[in-house]
TrEMBL record:
GO terms for cellular component: axoneme; ciliary basal body; intraciliary transport particle A. It is found in: Cell projection, Cilium. The keyword Nuclease does not apply. GO terms for biological process: intraciliary retrograde transport. It comes from Hydra vulgaris (Hydra). InterPro entries: TPR-like_helical_dom_sf (IPR011990), TPR_IF140/IFT172/WDR19 (IPR056168). Keywords: Cell projection, Cilium, Flagellum, Repeat, WD repeat. This is Intraflagellar transport protein 140 homolog.
Length: 534
């Protein structure tokens, strides 16, 4: 047996009475005694009940051949049928059987090329078979089946589009809110356009707002009634809309109204621009002072520069944090004190440029040195300090010197501090230039205490290329610390150098009993234990 069709029996049917193509006859329950027998048309013969014998015979052959899977012979069986209604009914049947190949033949015989194209496009753009069949259902007017097919394949985006095309906006929005949120705003936008076409402005505005397109769509829709549009903008209080309306009013020459809406939108640049255009410089200046808006200050500074008011131009360039412009004007007018202050606030490039300016001008080496230092050109600052004998500036610079500076420059600075009996600073510079042994000798000769920080700066990492020199230097640091009475530090460095006997002697000198016992426990050397016992 081959199943050709199946369906649920009506609850009122009690049994099958018989079959006579194209009908099935059923016995109805007792409550329908006025109609004891009911009939149901077979699926393939829906709307063919009154067809002629040729059509019925062709459909019988088609039903049998398609049920056994012989589609070539099935097509031949119905090839002689010419009635468009017959082909349309067969196309409807293809929705239930999901036979799109048969559906294309049916639509071709109907002459419905648009439907064929729509289904082809669906096949190219979608992967789900149910989505393809749903498009067929739409083309033959089976909307309920199309809706269910989209739900079955979970293509709620296509279902949303289907609801919109069916003018069923309530269900479209509900579908978008629950299952297709990525297209929710688009759905509101399309609904707004639909309501606009119907003349429902209030509904259109509401949906344009929900879609986030009201800033463009509402002005476009209300442009014929500017009073209504202005009332909407005032009610909405959206800054972008107010700024747009202010620009529109400005284009009409209504500066007072434009200023009002620019103020509401907090567009201080445009307010200053209008004040400058109307030559209300005091109002523009006060507005910049009150708000501190950088763009507004920059615009006002440019206006003052054009009018030749350089001090105010420099001031507002500074308020706008456009220090390069302010520096340019200060250089042109040789306002050296303001130039120094501005350069300190600007970028390193501006600092170095101003330092070069002061150096070339002469007599301002202290300013040039400070700017070279702040600008990151430490070597240049030191060279200039030596050449101009600005030793006070050199002392300030020395605090920021490290191993990244040219070693020759560091050594030169160290010699300077040695000559001036500032041995602590000289030690730091010798360490920065990797002159560790000289630094240690200076610590001993001039009683400069070796701290933990200084000792760590002079300690090479374990993976240092010259392991012997590293151990030698560790012992030197330990000996220096021992002589200065820093016994714990000496113990640490002797231990790092691997000389546990010297480490033990240093620890004994410290008198720290707890650490002595701990050291004896971890060392496990007979000589050390005997020494500790004695």
């Amino acid at each position: 047996l081959v199943v050709q069709d199946h369906f649920k029996m009506d609850p009122s049917y009690t049994g099958l009475l018989g079959m006579d193509t194209p009908f099935c006859y059923f016995i109805q329950s007792g409550q329908h005694r006025d109609q004891c027998v009911a009939r149901k048309t077979m699926r393939d013969f829906v709307e063919f009940e009154n067809g002629d014998q040729v059509t019925k015979a062709a459909m019988m052959s088609y039903s049998y051949l398609s049920a056994i899977g012989n589609m070539d012979e099935a097509f031949k069986a119905i090839k002689s049928i010419k009635s468009p209604s017959v082909w349309e009914n067969m196309a409807r049947m293809c929705v239930k059987t999901k036979r799109l190949d048969v559906a294309f033949v049916c639509l071709g015989n109907m002459g419905n090329a648009a439907a064929v194209k729509a289904i082809r496009d669906a096949q190219l753009s979608e992967v789900e078979v149910d989505a393809h069949v749903a498009m067929l259902a739409i083309q033959v007017g089976m909307h309920e089946e199309a809706e269910q097919l989209y739900k079955n394949c979970h293509r709620y985006d296509l279902l949303n589009i289907f609801y919109q095309a069916s003018n069923n906006w309530t269900q479209a929005i509900e579908c978008a809110e629950k299952h297709d949120r990525i297209h929710l705003r688009t759905t509101f936008y399309c609904y707004g356009q639909y309501l606009e076409d119907l003349g429902n402005k209030e509904g259109a505005v509401e949906n344009f707002e929900k879609s986030g397109t009201f800033r463009f769509e509402v002005p476009r829709m209300m442009m014929d009634d500017v009073d209504e549009l202005q009332a909407y903008i005032l009610k909405r209080k959206d800054k972008e809309l107010m700024k747009w309306w202010a620009r529109y009013l400005e284009s009409l020459g209504d500066m007072e109204a434009a200023l009002f809406f620019y103020k509401q939108s907090e567009d201080y640049l445009s307010m200053v621009r209008i004040h400058c255009f109307c030559e209300n410089m005091k109002e523009a200046e006060q507005l910049c002072q009150d708000t501190g808006d950088k763009a507004a200050c920059y615009h006002l500074a440019c206006q003052f520069e054009i009018s030749g008011n350089i001090p105010k131009s420099i001031h507002f360039f500074s308020r706008a944090q456009c220090y390069s412009n302010a520096i340019r004007l200060a250089k042109e007018k040789q306002l050296d004190q303001e130039l120094m202050n501005l350069s300190m606030l600007s970028t390193q490039e501006d600092m170095l440029s101003c330092a070069q300016y002061f150096e070339e001008k002469g007599g301002m080496d202290d300013k040039a040195i400070a700017l070279y230092h702040r600008g990151g050109s430490v070597s240049k600052a030191i060279d200039l300090a030596f050449s101009s004998k600005q030793f006070g500036a050199l002392q300030l610079i020395s605090d920021d010197l490290d191993e990244n500076v040219d070693p020759q420059v560091l050594h030169k600075c160290a010699d300077f501090f040695i000559e001036n009996d500032q041995f602590d600073k000289a030690v730091n510079l010798l360490i920065a230039s990797k002159k560790f042994e000289e630094a240690l000798r200076m610590c001993l000769d001039h009683d400069i205490q070796i701290t933990e920080e200084i000792a760590e700066k002079m300690t090479f990492p374990k993976e240092h290329s010259d392991a012997k020199y590293r151990l030698y230097l560790l012992e030197k640091i330990g000996e220096c610390a021992y002589k200065q009475g820093s016994f714990h530090l000496a113990t640490k460095k002797f231990t790092q150098a691997g000389n546990k006997m010297k480490a033990m002697k240093s620890l004994l000198k410290s008198g720290d009993t707890e650490k002595i016992v701990f050291f004896a426990g971890v060392s496990r050397q007979k000589e050390i234990c005997n020494g500790l016992t004695n």
